[in-house]
Amino acid sequence: MADTPERGSVRGLRIGQLLLVVAALLLWGAARLTWVVLHSSDGLGQPKTVELAGSTWSTALLPVALLLGAAVVATLAVRGWPLRAVALLLAVVSAGLAYLAVSQWVVPDVDERAAQLAQIPFADQVLTEREYAGAVCTLVAAICTLVAAVLLIRSATAGRRTTSRYAAPGARRSAVQTESAQAETEGDAASESGLSERMIWDALDEGHDPTVRETDDKPDPPAEGR
Questions:
Q1: Could you tell me if residue 119 is left (phi over 0), alpha (psi between -120 and 50 degrees) or otherwise beta?
Q2: Is residue 225 part of a domain?
Q3: Where is this region: Disordered (predicted)?
Q4: pLDDT tens-digit profile of 180-220?
Q5: Is the dihedral angle over the CA atoms 55, 58, 59, 62 positive or is it negative?
Q6: Is 162 a domain residue?
């Protein structure tokens, strides 16, 4: 049995909410994973190794994860154009997450930024290593967020069409009732008009002028003698 548009809309909404939850969990995990490992030595002591987690490398990961959680709650309470507004915001967020993840591959040099975040003089730096697990989690979260945004927009549009479709029969019934009332009124007027015409012709046949109103106190004609 095929799904109705309303059921399909609800199912799309639930899948979108699930994807947002998955994306929030992925960002939480990415914030805890190591993104850059920095090895440094000042030539006096032992070499140091500093691991920069995602929450340090990109402070936006945890706030965006919270934002996605809030979006899940928002989709439970809003419909129509507010839901589409939430979906558009999620689409923008997904683009930002994708940029953050891809930059882990394409940025040519992370040494200076890693030294600043680790609070180590750049002259003492020896080597930096990139870890890509956190970036992969972030990229998957971006894809999940984008798909969720598309599903939410489709759900909001389908919900609006369903509401319009179910409102149409009521409007049609109201129009039919109005037309029926008008037809009855016109029929009554036509009946009264037809009755008046018959009365006029009857009066003319009897030799009376229908345009002259006769009074009830008109004296009776005198009786004829024999």
A1: left
A2: no
A3: 169-226
A4: 566 555 555 545 444 466 667 676 767 666 666 554 445 55
A5: negative
A6: yes
